[in-house]
Amino acid sequence: MKSNDLKTEEKIYTVSEYLDFINSLIAPQKVVVQGEISQISPGNGYVFFSILDKNEKAVLKCFIWQRILNNLGIELKEGLEIQVKGFSRIYKPNGRFTFEIENLGLIGEGALKLAFEKLRKQLLTEGYFEAERKKPIPPYPQKIGLITSGFGDAKNDFLTHIGVFGYKINFISVRVEGLMAVDEITKAIRFLNENLPEVEVLVITRGGGSLESLQAFNSESMVKTIIGSRIPIVTGIGHENDETLADLAADYSASTPTDAARIISEHWRNAELTITNAQKNITSLFMNSHSNYKKIVATNEAYFLALPRKIISIKEIKLNDLQRLLESQIRTLISQIKQIQTKFFTNWGVIQNLLSNIKNEISRQEAFLNRESFRWSKFIATFLSELEQKLALGNPEARLKQGYSIVANESGKIIKSAKQLSIGQTLNLKLYQGTAKSKVNKINN
């Protein structure tokens, strides 16, 4: 090519600039590649090796930092089938095209079991699974972080069995399988810890599967992220027989997503049952008390109703005696009239006086009877009205309506004195409308 064929306006790169330019184009393109390990060449803190595609006779030169391999707990061996996630670049000092690995996963159950057992023993020796590290699960959580796939059954199983107890669930959808799953799950754990301090418990869950499909939960970085979580973590990974390193590191390991929901809601369900039983006991106690009050009222009612009848009966006897006396006096007067009939004409003035006296006496006695009847009728009406008011005041429903309440301990026994109380004791309150619970903070005897 002649020099005059080059256009002066075209950019002319140095070798270094051109390689930087190429790297800027290819490095951001992160991909997952599968192949067979060959030509392992350890270095100082890193390892070079190749992965082969034997069918197509293709080779990809790879580079990985030793610390990444240590975190994964994987020992590279020629012939192992692997998947690698990373990006390509050209190493400028020698112009070599290399695939730099950020994550690596084994293919095949045998290799995975060996890697799993090796890493499990290493982390166990380092104390990552010690019981002393585990944080208690709060008994009545309301703010929950849920990390799982948004498309699998695990999410629905958990939400279906968690119950309705006023939860606020912060859900983060992640991959739960493949090389990208580890990075997404660990980032979700850190995000909830750093940005949502109100979250009380964190749940990581997915459905069952093969050891290969659960590989994301068997990495050192997953274990360390779980151990470092400020928020207590419950795992519900796989089926009952599945156990991952994440389960061993978690503060509580549930056998399934459904079991994880049961663990989270267990105290809520027990409290709900306790409240239901307490309501039944209070209702039964109130009904029994009401029945006893009715019996007492009925007994008192019979007594107090009989009392005015007795008083009236006494007055009736007195009135009857007065009536008989009056009749006797009238008969006497009539007899006297008959005796003086013969003297009628000669003693007319005396007869008139006698008849006037009789008339006056009859009017006086009638007025007396009317006064007594009115007085006793008013007395009886007033007595019965007062009795009715006293009976109404003795009605428990009336007392509750006035703002009073029935206080009972948790066994249903009615509290009548402050001497029956103790600090911190839970009390059940029966109000006119509904029930409530309270806790004793102070006692004044």
In summary, what is this structure?
This protein is of the alpha/beta class. It has helices at 15-26, 66-72, 109-125, 153-161, 179-195, 220-227, 245-249, 257-341, 348-393, 396-401, and strands spanning 31-42, 46-53, 58-65, 81-91, 96-107, 143-148, 168-173, 201-206, 233-237, 252-254, 406-408, 426-430, 435-439. It contains ten helices and 13 strands.
List the helices and strands and how they pair.
Blueprint (H helix, E strand, L loop, with lengths): L14 H12 L4 E12 L3 E8 L4 E8 H7 L8 E11 L4 E12 L1 H17 L17 E6 L4 H9 L6 E6 L5 H17 L5 E6 L13 H8 L5 E5 L7 H5 L2 E3 L2 H85 L6 H46 L2 H6 L4 E3 L17 E5 L4 E5 L6
Parallel strand pairs: 3-5, 6-7, 6-8, 8-9, 9-10
Antiparallel strand pairs: 1-2, 1-4, 2-3, 4-5, 11-12, 12-13
